[in-house]
Amino acid sequence: MRLMVNICDKIPNYPAVRALADHPDIWCTVGAHPHEAKDHTDLAAQILIDFAADPRVVGIGECGLDFHYDLSPREIQAAVFRQHIVAARETGLPLVVHTRQADQVMGEILEAEHAKAPSPADALLHVGRGTGGAVRRVGAWFSVSGIATFKAAEDVRAVVREMPADRIIVETDCPYLAPVPHRGRRNEPAYLPDVLVKLAEIRGWSRDEAEQRTEDAFFKLFQRISRP
């Protein structure tokens, strides 16, 4: 692995996330995960836009909706998510989206916001259980994690098979979802080759083809990052 994007989960953590991006091979995003939305009720799109003026910031998020844990009230999750969408629209940076058991509402919000003002920005979604509808409805990009290697995750693999071949990247989602054969351990970027091998198997690609396709997609999505 030659480079990576470090994902921000809440604004108070942004300085630490950004500090890592001082490394020449690390970039970052800025945003608030839906679990943290309750602590970001006053988050305005302009705050995100101001942070995104930094060229080391390459995406807006992680943001979205999580109706599985409901650690923040749903209406607050939706309101905070909409601020991220506005910021992505204004900056042209990709929106890094988390959605869990919120597929219908997620699609409705994205479609409604797009109808207000079509955005040049793209949306990147985790591929997990319950993302199939969102995949079909919003024309997003997709990140495949270790969950695709789990024996019981055939529903996830089915979604991976349907994704546009030129819009797939791989992710850790660390410290969670370590791929087989590391399942149960703290996840880390060193395990990404196992995800890549599974992706190749699911799509019927060689490992080299999977590596080339995901690398091409990465640079097409995160356009602030210059290809080496």
From TrEMBL:
Binding-site residues for a divalent metal cation 2, renumbered to this chain: 98, 126
GO MF annotations, alphabetized: hydrolase activity, acting on ester bonds; metal ion binding
CDD domains, per the entry: TatD_DNAse (cd01310)
Keywords on record: Hydrolase, Metal-binding
Entry similarity comment: Belongs to the metallo-dependent hydrolases superfamily. TatD-type hydrolase family.
Binding site for a divalent metal cation 1: 62, 173
Source organism per UniProt: Phenylobacterium glaciei
Superkingdom, taxonomy of origin: Bacteria
Organism taxonomic ancestry: Bacteria, Pseudomonadati, Pseudomonadota, Alphaproteobacteria, Caulobacterales
This protein's GO CC annotations: cytosol
Alphabetical list of InterPro entries matching this protein: DNase_TatD-rel_CS, Metal_Hydrolase, TatD-like
Descriptive protein name: TatD family hydrolase
